[in-house]
Task: inverse folding
């Protein structure tokens, strides 16, 4: 199954190989020879590779020892992938490697760069070995190049996929964390908004708030946007719509903590301020909400 | 499908059952406007809890009902708008301005009782 996937991904590489298939079993024979050569010269080639990596200043986030250790396992999985012509193990390794190095700030170009470096180092060693026999060199390269390209492809794709997975995960975490609808008194909800609001997050906030009003039977909602530095016109409009939608559910909305920039935006888009109930800070908002709900808060004793 | 109009003390209550045709909505509007004076009601409660979607005709009719009832000397409260419906309405610009709204029938009744208590 995985073979098929790989072959569609590296279809260009496959085509290169096609003419060779006519020469009976030659490619796999050649690959075997190739693998034997790479095993034999493992130490030397690996050192050369690591040298090239530090020369080109890749993987600067990692120490020399770490690079060497990783290089060793990459080299071995590389040779193994060449030998078995299966890429699952390499794929799994690439994913695992990505998991470890992404948090340390390793970039995509570095990962692709080191794999391509290894490809070049190995190709050079093949040139050196078969320089006397040009025909053989050609056939060896015919066998080596498609496989090497597929390996590079596999590692790069693995890295990028892992990266995207991390990004997706973090986005989800942000989405879940960022929109609490809290009940502070019977029938009084507060919705503290912190950070940047994009249209998607704004929509989600609205949904959660409207649903919260229904489930908590809220009469007053305080939306606190102290933690929002600026918002664009779309989001500002969305905020106004949220206020209006809350009213349709029978809840009064108080918006608190508007920054000067947001006030400016609201004025620029010409929001009907008659619909918007605004109070300077969260404390004032809660106090007003309590008044609307008929609460009267008083101290029963001196603070200790 | 006819929308029943219930008389509850000083109030009239009309409950939307499900998706209504435009003709049903017009009948309801006519019925409410007639009965509000006939029963000398002080307010009308329109309960739309059962409506999962509300098109522009329905929301316009709601607004018209509210304004006509006011001209007939009573007040209207719309109750039970679903969260999704509320936001869709606002996005369409149908904000029912000047019309009282409440979470559900209970809230609507409480609102009216409180209001008329103050007037007396």
Result:
């Amino acid at each position: 199954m995985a073979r098929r996937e790989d072959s569609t991904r590296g279809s260009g590489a496959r085509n290169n190989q096609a003419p060779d298939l006519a020469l009976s079993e030659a490619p796999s024979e050649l690959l075997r020879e190739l693998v034997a050569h790479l095993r034999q010269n493992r130490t030397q080639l690996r050192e050369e590779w690591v040298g090239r990596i530090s020369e080109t200043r890749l993987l600067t986030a990692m120490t020399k020892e770490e690079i060497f250790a990783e290089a060793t396992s990459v080299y071995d999985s590389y040779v193994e992938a060449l030998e078995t012509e299966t890429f699952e193990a390499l794929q799994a390794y690439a994913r695992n490697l990505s998991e470890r190095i992404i948090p340390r700030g390793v970039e995509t170009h570095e990962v692709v760069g080191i794999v391509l470096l290894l490809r070049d180092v190995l190709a050079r060693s093949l040139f050196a070995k078969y320089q006397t026999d040009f025909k053989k060199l050609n056939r060896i390269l015919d066998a080596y190049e498609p496989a090497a390209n597929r390996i590079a492809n596999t590692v790069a794709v693995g890295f990028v996929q892992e990266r995207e997975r991390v990004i997706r995960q973090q986005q989800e975490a942000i989405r879940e964390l960022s929109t609490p609808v809290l009940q502070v008194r019977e029938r009084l909800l507060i919705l503290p908004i912190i950070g940047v609001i994009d249209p998607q997050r704004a929509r989600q906030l609205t949904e959660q708030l409207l649903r919260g009003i229904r489930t908590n039977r809220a009469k007053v909602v305080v939306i606190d946007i102290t933690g929002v530095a600026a918002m664009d016109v779309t989001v500002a409009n969305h905020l106004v719509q949220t206020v209006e939608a809350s009213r349709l559910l029978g809840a009064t909305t108080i918006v608190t903590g508007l920054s000067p920039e947001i006030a400016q935006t609201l004025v620029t888009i010409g929001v009907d301020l008659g619909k918007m109930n605004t109070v300077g800070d969260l404390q004032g908002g809660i106090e007003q909400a309590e008044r609307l709900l008929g609460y009267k808060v008083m101290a029963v004793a001196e603070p200790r | 499908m006819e929308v029943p109009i219930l008389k509850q003390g000083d109030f009239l209550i009309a409950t939307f059952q499900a998706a209504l045709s435009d003709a049903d909505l017009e009948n309801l509007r006519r019925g409410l406007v007639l009965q509000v004076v006939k029963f000398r009601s002080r307010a009308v409660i329109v309960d739309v809890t059962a409506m999962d979607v509300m098109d522009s005709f329905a929301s316009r009719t709601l607004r018209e009902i509210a304004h006509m009832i006011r001209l007939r000397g009573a007040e209207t409260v719309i109750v039970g708008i679903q969260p999704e419906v509320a936001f869709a309405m606002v996005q369409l610009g149908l904000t029912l301005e000047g019309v009282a709204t409440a979470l559900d029938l209970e809230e609507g009744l409480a609102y009216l009782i409180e209001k008329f208590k103050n007037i007396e």
User: Anything to note?
Assistant: Chain A has two domains: 2-171, 182-293. The first strand of chain A starts at residue 182 and ends at 185. The radius of gyration of chain A is 31 Å. Residues 1-25 of chain A have pLDDT under 50 and may be disordered.
